[in-house]
Amino acid sequence: MGDFFTTYRDPEILEKLAKKIGDYKGRKINIMEVCGTHTMAISRYGIRSLLPESINLISGPGCPVCVTPVFFINAAINLSSRKDTIITTFGDLMRVPGSESNLLQQKALGRDVRVVYSPLDSIKIAKQNKDKNVVFLSVGFETTTPISALTVLNAKDEGLKNFSVLSANKTVPVALEVLAMDEDIGIDGYLYPGHVSAIIGTGIYEELARKHRIPGVVAGFEPLDILNGIIRLSENINQNNIVVENAYQRAVSKEGNPIAVSKMYEVYEPCDSVWRGIGNLPMSGLKIRDEYKEFDAWKVFELEQKVMEEPKGCLCGEILKGKKKPSDCLLFGKACVPESPVGACMVSSEGTCAAYYKYNF
Amino acid sequence: MSDIITLAHGSGGKSSNELIKNVFLKHLSNDYLLSGDDAAVVEVSGRVAYTTDSFVITPIFFNGGDIGKLSVCGTVNDLTAIGAKPLYLSCGFIIEEGFPIKDLEVIVASMAQTAKESGVKIVTGDTKVVQKNAVDKIFINTSGIGIIPNELNVSGARAKAGDKVIITGTIGDHGCSILLEREKLDIISDIKSDCKPLNKMIEKVIERTQDIHVMRDPTRGGVAATLNEIAVQSNVGIKLFEGSIPVKDQVKGVCELLGMDPLYMANEGKMLIIAPESSSKAILEELKKDEAGADSCIIGEITSESAGRLFMKTITGGSRIIDMPVGDQLPRIC
To answer: Domain residues for B125?
Structure first.
């Protein structure tokens, strides 16, 4: 089989696939790739430059950082200003703009904000700093939420009294449904998120396909995976095959990962959730259950979840829904650049605007 | 002598003299330093290149080197990049009180060893000691002078359409190894910093041909930052070929895991050389004769379109822009 890199990045096979997609002669179609990592991979490998004009690749709201509301960052900044508090976070959140500041700036001002590679590192930090409150900023979809849940379960087992999680986790299926129904966008097919699917399985997509007559392909993140996924999807769309294909079988099964899902729902339960730029999507979010309320930072610190208006001119919402491209936003590349982003889409490593800016602008 | 640095060691009195004698002069001994004068007097003629750099790296001891070795290599390589033969270095130390003297000795010995390896002399220096937490253990500044041969004219503004872009070896080794050591991740790897002086290797290249337009060592910000700077300075486009860029498997693996890009990672023992096609073959031949240049190869070319931009033909055959980095790379969520 060869090693990971050579197999899924084989230049000969890539050349064949690139030619095949370049030769596409079917009708004009809109494919939405939902996952932020797909957005980044597509840009990183220059895949858009290989597609004919008749295949329109739309980036959806699959970037967890991009859809996290401003009030979340404001709450995190608020917590960081307390002398007795250590904030632990994924690197992505450091540069996301709140109303007036961001976590990187707060760190420069001397606040204790630490980047972790795994939420479980926060447990170590909490144990080493019993006199401080440690708050882990948890955002993400079904890929990362099970690990946040595991962190809470660990904290409970260890009897930690100084650890909590500030959650803004969300689930993908509701958003997929809402977008499928939006005629303005006109999605013909879905490129489904490989790693979310590894957790939730593919059954949900089949229902979506039946209900809304939209075919889909579950794809991985190597260039071969993505090209193959687009080719399969465009063929199915043109032949009116309302099917869901799993083209990422090395990681995804129909059942997904029931253990991860059950851990997730042991700690979390569905709730309404605000998606930045999109608005409230019923039952699309996850909140920590009452049994674990001592680990729910929203409750522990009595923090407000107040929805705020987007900054003037910011098109993140329309871009997240795939209705507009970054180049349609008047702020893109001018007032809104990675060094000083106006909206989250520019700063998250998986944000559509960041990907466009870094790789295409 | 005590076993830790105290404020007394920086105050210019007896303790300072003892430190100079027992640590600095023990390893860096030469006529210039032994003279004990306030300044070194050297004689040079020709076009003098002059550079400075400060070193604040943490951790100070890492796989493949230490802050001392780095401080000599950094300045030697900057002089080498402008085409100069490095001759004389200065070094200034700012040390936190409480710093173990045995660690200082290791660092100074390392500087002496690296200076010897590169054939340069450290001719003047200074030491300050500051209170706890005023610096992070030890900061070092080095500056250096060297002479540029008359026939050589390298500058970031001289890249021309048609030139080839050469790298002298694998990229991202230093940045990646430091990241692993600093973050103490549970990733087992033997990636080590590529920190080394490049002057002897480049001197051979220059002896063979002076038809070289640009040289620069891709340190902070990596190849991406360095080539972006050159694209703007020379007002040319720079096109890289992803398939040609040499990256160690281990560096690739770590970067994939963490969501980092080797193009943005620091290198401390590599040189980018931009030269006309006509001299590229000879340059590569000379580079490959040296162990430090064994993996040298052409990774791209200079174009007249997309002036001021760095872009890359990817392994899919598509095209992407490689932008100037904004701050440090941050690890991704998912």
So the answer is: 7-148
